[in-house]
């Protein structure tokens, strides 16, 4: 199962337990975050396409750490004019780990288990 989700303005193909580097997100290390803008879902060959997003679907993730990316050098030059500019930066990134993908219309596992125990208690 995988999903294409929009995180901080970029699209990522994610699956369970995948680690992804995204633009810096608000939140501390260890926080659980959820992304509701799921553009496509593939559940073992059953593809669900959103228009623009799939209603009721979400992707849960955990913030692992905040870090900086590799240094990017920006160098500008105009030949024979004596113009040279060297600049650079390190992009602020967040590493997240995908903890699960929730399908539309599917109840969370904890609530479903609680409902089953209630039903068995009323039947007895």
Could you describe the 3D structure shown?
The chain has 124 residues and is mainly beta. The protein has one domain (2-123). The chain has one helix at residues 109-123; strands at 2-7, 10-14, 19-23, 32-35, 38-43, 46-49, 58-78, 83-102. The chain has a 4-stranded antiparallel sheet with strand order 2-1-5-6, with no helix packed on it. Strands 3-8-7-4 form a 4-stranded antiparallel sheet, with no helix packed on it. The longest helix is centred in the last third of the chain and has 15 residues, at 109-123. The chain is elongated. The two termini are 37 Å apart.
Shape: elongated
Strand order of the largest sheet: 2-1-5-6
Largest sheet: 4 strands, antiparallel
- SSE ordering: EEEEEEEEH
What number of domains?
1
Q: Give the terminus-to-terminus CA distance.
A: 37 Å
Which strand-content bin applies to the residues? over 45%
Figure out the total of helices: 1
> Helix amount, in percent?
10-25%
Total count of strands? 8
Give unreliable regions as ranges: none
Q: Label the structural class.
A: mainly beta
Please compute the radius of gyration using only Cα atoms. 21 Å
* Average pLDDT reading: 88
What topology emerges from the helices and strands here?
Elements: E1 2-7, E2 10-14, E3 19-23, E4 32-35, E5 38-43, E6 46-49, E7 58-78, E8 83-102, H1 109-123
Antiparallel strand pairs: 1-2, 1-5, 3-8, 4-7, 5-6, 7-8
């Amino acid at each position: 199962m995988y999903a294409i989700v929009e995180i901080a303005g970029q699209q990522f193909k994610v699956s369970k337990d995948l680690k992804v580097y995204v633009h810096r997100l608000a939140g501390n290390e260890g926080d659980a975050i959820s992304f509701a803008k799921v553009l496509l879902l593939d559940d073992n060959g059953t593809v669900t396409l959103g228009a623009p997003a799939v209603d009721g679907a979400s992707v849960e993730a955990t913030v692992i750490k905040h870090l900086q990316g590799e240094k990017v050098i920006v160098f500008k030059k105009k030949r024979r004019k004596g113009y040279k500019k060297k600049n650079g930066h390190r992009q602020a990134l967040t590493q997240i780990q995908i903890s699960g993908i929730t399908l539309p219309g599917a109840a969370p596992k904890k609530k479903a288990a609680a409902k089953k125990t209630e039903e068995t208690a009323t039947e007895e």
